[in-house]
Write a structure and sequence with these properties.
The structure holds two protein chains of two kinds.
Chain A: H1 2-25, H2 27-39, H3 44-54, H4 58-68, H5 73-84, H6 86-98, H7 103-112, H8 115-119, H9 130-157, H10 170-181, H11 188-206, H12 212-237
Chain B: H1 2-18, H2 31-37, H3 40-54, E1 55-56, E2 59-60, H4 67-82, H5 85-102
Antiparallel strand pairs in B: 1-2
Classes of the chains: A mainly alpha, B mainly alpha.
Chain lengths: ~240, ~100
């Protein structure tokens, strides 16, 4: 029993440590969001609630601007859905491992399933054991605390900070995602998918295609799939 | 009113994350769909990442004076060489900031 608890503690600690660089990398975005919300006329409680219950990066920043501009509720909701739609893919990818788990695990990990937690869920046996569930919970939970802490700092410091939106802070996010993507490129198929996603996403952004992110991702997945199938058939045909 | 909007938004973000974790949803994943989904992680991350680097004020920013590209090039090299997240972010940020100052 004691050894069991110790193992859970170690697994949890590893989760916290593995997500730590990501928790730190979103510091600029958290501060940016907190100060932006206050500058756009939201109370500090409302600003904190955004991070506390919505718990998304881009979706919070975009919807705060939309609400401040008096956009219709429907526009706000639809935009939020479009930005969040990539999470449907995450759920689908983890469905086989997580759907048989008890409700409390599904609710907890579902709530915490951000880009960052999904990036740490790539292991072949992720969430397959109790230890791996605790690992995910600790990673996701500590990331949640960090995001809310950075938001709070932004709310408090927002009054004294200049407009942060144009300081190039978004590079921290870019560098983090490079660190997550590049070491995972171990096959031609993955490389093809990554390049397709990057090129398509840039063009869709330039064309103001609202579903561009998810469309680029789906296209890239199709390319990865096709390359993998072609390579399999070439190897199989020899 | 704002409070209600925030709660509705929370339902959307949670809904998209939770939906397919629900076992009662009648969706079965065959081997082909699973292979397709195995590319979702890198694809989504690359799709979020690329416009940050290449698009500035609605324009394609392919230029040696774009500090994002310098930072990203070094970050990619560091990620490839070390596979370490701290080295990647550290080296990338350093070059990004230096390039921003020099250019």
């Amino acid at each position: 029993m004691n050894a069991n608890n110790r193992a859970l503690k170690i697994a949890s600690l590893r989760g916290v440590m593995d997500v730590l660089p990501l928790s730190l990398a979103v510091l600029p975005w958290g501060i940016l969001f907190g100060s932006l919300a206050v500058q756009r006329g939201f109370s500090w409680l409302e600003a904190q609630l955004f991070s506390g219950v919505i718990f998304g990066g881009a979706v919070q920043i975009v919807t705060v601007e939309l609400i401040a501009d008096n956009s219709s509720l429907l526009t706000v909701m639809f935009t939020a859905f479009v930005i969040s739609s990539r999470h449907l893919l995450y759920g689908l990818s983890l469905r086989e491992r997580l759907s048989p788990k008890p409700l409390r695990w599904r609710l907890g990990l579902g709530f915490l399933l951000t880009d960052e937690l999904f990036a740490l869920s790539g292991h072949r046996r992720a969430y397959m054991s109790k230890l791996r569930l605790y690992y995910g919970l600790a990673a996701g939970g500590s990331f949640y605390l960090a995001w809310n802490l950075w938001t709070f700092v932004g709310i408090v410091a927002g009054a004294w900070l200049p407009d942060l939106t144009d300081l190039g802070l978004d590079f921290a996010i870019a560098a983090t995602f490079i660190a997550l993507v590049v070491p995972g490129i171990k096959s031609l198929a993955t490389l093809a998918a990554v390049i397709t996603a990057a090129v398509a996403s840039v063009f869709f952004t330039l064309w103001h295609f609202e579903l561009g992110l998810i469309a680029a991702a789906l296209l890239a997945m199709a390319v990865g799939y096709t390359v993998s199938k072609i390579r399999d058939s070439v190897v199989g045909g020899r | 009113m704002t409070l209600l909007t925030i709660l509705l938004l929370a339902c959307i973000t949670f809904g998209t994350r939770y939906l397919f974790l629900e076992g009662r949803l009648p969706v079965r994943l065959g081997p082909n769909l699973r292979l397709l989904l195995s590319y979702s992680g890198p694809s989504v991350l690359a799709a979020i990442l690329a416009p940050i680097l290449f698009v500035r004020s609605d324009q394609l920013y392919l230029s040696v004076s774009n500090p994002y590209l310098w930072g990203a090039a070094v970050a990619v090299a560091a990620a490839y060489k070390t596979g370490n997240i701290y080295w990647t972010i550290g080296a990338g940020m350093l070059v990004f900031i230096a390039a921003g100052q020099l250019i």
